[in-house]
Design a protein that fits this description.
Oligomer: single chain
Number of helices: 11
Strand content: 25-35%
Bound molecules: flavin-adenine dinucleotide
Largest sheet: 8 strands, mixed
Number of strands: 18
Distance between the termini: 51 Å
Radius of gyration: 22 Å
C-alpha cells in the first residue's frame, strides 16, 4: 500500500533522487464479485468509490475503466471550478462541491493544485448587468460569494480587454466570484484513485463493460472484456457514453453525446490572473501554471462519439478569443482536443436510482462536471449505499422531465447570454 506523502517523503526522495516513488494505486486482478461495481474511471467514478469506502465503509468496490483512468473528460477539461448557480437544486450542490474542493488536497493527501483565482464574467450590455445583479443577489442570499463590478473595477482586474470606443462588444462591467478558480484535473483523478485504493477499492483499467447481467428487472453484474463480474449494485459514471452503457440495461436516457473542444496557446508570462468568461458568447479562458492560455467555447453541435473536433468550431472560438482579448491575435495556438459531453435537455445532471433495480446513474454533466466531481462522488455514494437520494442530489432524478421538475440552467457555462 502506498505510504502518505509528506515533507519527509519529499526530503527522502530529494536526498536519494534515484529511488523510485511507490506505485500510487494498486493494479489488482478483478475478483469474480463485488458489493458495488462502478463503470467508468473518470473523476466521478473514482470519487464515488472513494466516498463509498470513506463515508459508508463499503470497500468491496471495483471501478472498471475501459482505458486508463482519467482518459475521458476528467483529463480533457478546462479545469474551471465555481459555484455561481441560481436555481434551487443546483445552488447548494455546487457550493458544497466548491467547499469540498477547498479541502481536497488535504483530504486526499495529494496536491490537486486548487487555485482560487476568481472567475470574472464580463457583461457587454446594460441588460446583462441587470441579469448579473440578479444572479449575484441570489448567490449572496444563498451564502455564496459574488461581487458586481462596474466598468472601472473590471478594467483594474482585466486591463487587457478592449475598452476602446470602437470595441465590437463594449465592456459594461462584470460579475466576480472570488472563490472560483481552477484545479489540476489529472491530479484530482490520481488523488481519488490513490486514496480509494488505500481504502481497498479495486481500480481495474483496460476493462470495458460490454453488457449487463440481468435477473428480471434487477442488475446482478456486468460482462466485461476481462470476463463476467458479479455485483450487488452497479453505478454508471461514463459521461459521454451514458446512453450507450444505460442501453445495455434496456434504459433510454434523455442524453445526447456531443463534442466539446478545448485549446491551449504557446506559454507566455503571467498575464491573465483570473478565469475570464464572456457575456457576448460562450467563451472561457484561464492561464495555466505553464503559461499557456487554456480556453473553450460551445459544443460542436451534432451528435457523435468521435472525440475529435471540427474546424468550423475552431474558427468560432478563435473569433471569440480575439474579440474579447485582442492581444490573442498575436499568439500561436499549440494544441486543441475534444471530449464527449453528455448533454441533457435542461443542462443539469443525473445522480439517481434508475427504473432498473440496483442500477444507479451518474451522468448528464454537460459543461460542468469537473467542478461537480467531489459533490457528485459524495452524493452518488450516498445514493448507492442507502438506495435513496441525498438532500443535495434530490432533484437530479431521471423522472424530473415527466414531473415538470426541470432544472433549467442550461449548460450554466452559457448562462451569461441565455438569460
Ligand atoms: C473540452 C472540455 C472542457 C470542459 N471544461 C470544463 C470545465 O472547465 N469545468 C467543468 O466543471 N467541467 C468541464 N467539462 C466537463 C467535465 O470535464 C466533465 O463533465 C467531467 O469530467 C465528467 O467526468 P466523468 O468522470 O463523469 O467522465 P469521464 O472523465 O469522461 O469518465 C468516464 C469514463 O468512463 C469510461 N467508459 C466509457 N464507457 C465505458 C465502458 N463501457 N466500460 C468501462 N469504462 C467506460 C471512459 O473511458 C472514461 O474514462 C469540460 C469537458 C470538456 C470535454
Amino acid at each position: 500500500m502506498a505510504k502518505g506523502y509528506s515533507v519527509f517523503s519529499l526530503l527522502k526522495h530529494a536526498l536519494k533522487p534515484d529511488s523510485a516513488w511507490p506505485q500510487a494505486w494498486e493494479k489488482p486482478q478483478p475478483r469474480s464479485s463485488y458489493d458495488v461495481v462502478i463503470i467508468g474511471g473518470g473523476g466521478h467514478g473514482l470519487a464515488t468509490a472513494y466516498y463509498l469506502a470513506k463515508n459508508h465503509g463499503i470497500t468491496n468496490v471495483a471501478v472498471l475503466e475501459r482505458s486508463y483512468i482519467g482518459s475521458g473528460n476528467a483529463g480533457r477539461n478546462t479545469t474551471i471550478i465555481r459555484s455561481n448557480y441560481m436555481i434551487g437544486g443546483n445552488t447548494n450542490f455546487f457550493e458544497f462541491s466548491l467547499k469540498l474542493w477547498e479541502g481536497l488536497s488535504h483530504e486526499l493527501n495529494y496536491n490537486c493544485m486548487v487555485s482560487h483565482r476568481g472567475q470574472v464574467v464580463v457583461a457587454v450590455s446594460p441588460v446583462q448587468m441587470d441579469v448579473f445583479a440578479r444572479r449575484g443577489n441570489i448567490m449572496r442570499l444563498n451564502g455564496i460569494d459574488a461581487e458586481l463590478l462596474d466598468r472601472g473595477e473590471t478594467q483594474k482586474l482585466l486591463p487587457y480587454l478592449d475598452y476602446s470606443k470602437e470595441a465590437r462588444f463594449p465592456v459594461w462591467g462584470a460579475i466576480h466570484q472570488p472563490r472560483a478558480g481552477t484545479a489540476r484535473h489529472d491530479a484530482m483523478v490520481w488523488g481519488y484513485a490513490r486514496a480509494a485504493s488505500q481504502l481497498g477499492v479495486h481500480i481495474i483499467e483496460n476493462c470495458e463493460v460490454t453488457g449487463m447481467v440481468m435477473d428480471g428487472n434487477r442488475v446482478t453484474g456486468v460482462e466485461t472484456t476481462r470476463g463476467r463480474i458479479n455485483a450487488g449494485k452497479v453505478g454508471i459514471a461514463v459521461a459521454g457514453h451514458s446512453s450507450h452503457v444505460a442501453r445495455m440495461a434496456g434504459l433510454k436516457l434523455p442524453v445526447e453525446s456531443h463534442i466539446l473542444q478545448a485549446f491551449v496557446t504557446e506559454p507566455v508570462k503571467p498575464i491573465v490572473h483570473h478565469v475570464v468568461s464572456w457575456g457576448a458568447e460562450l467563451f472561457y479562458l484561464s492561464q495555466s501554471d505553464k503559461g499557456g492560455l487554456v480556453f473553450g467555447g460551445h459544443i460542436d453541435g451534432f451528435n457523435t462519439y468521435t472525440q475529435r473536433g471540427q474546424f468550423f468550431k475552431i474558427r468560432d472560438v478563435m473569433e471569440c478569443a480575439v474579440s474579447l482579448m485582442p492581444f490573442m491575435s498575436r499568439m500561436r495556438l499549440l494544441r486543441h482536443w475534444g471530449g464527449i459531453q453528455d448533454m441533457t435537455p435542461d443542462g443539469s445532471p443525473f445522480i439517481c436510482r434508475t427504473p432498473v433495480d440496483k442500477l444507479y446513474l451518474n451522468g448528464g454533466w454537460c459543461y460542468q462536471g469537473f467542478k461537480a466531481t467531489p459533490a457528485s462522488g459524495w452524493t452518488f455514494a450516498h445514493t448507492i449505499a442507502h438506495d435513496a437520494e441525498h438532500d443535495l442530489n434530490r432533484d437530479f432524478t431521471l423522472d424530473r422531465f415527466e414531473k415538470g421538475g426541470e432544472l433549467d440552467e442550461f449548460g450554466i457555462g452559457n448562462w451569461t447570454y441565455k438569460q
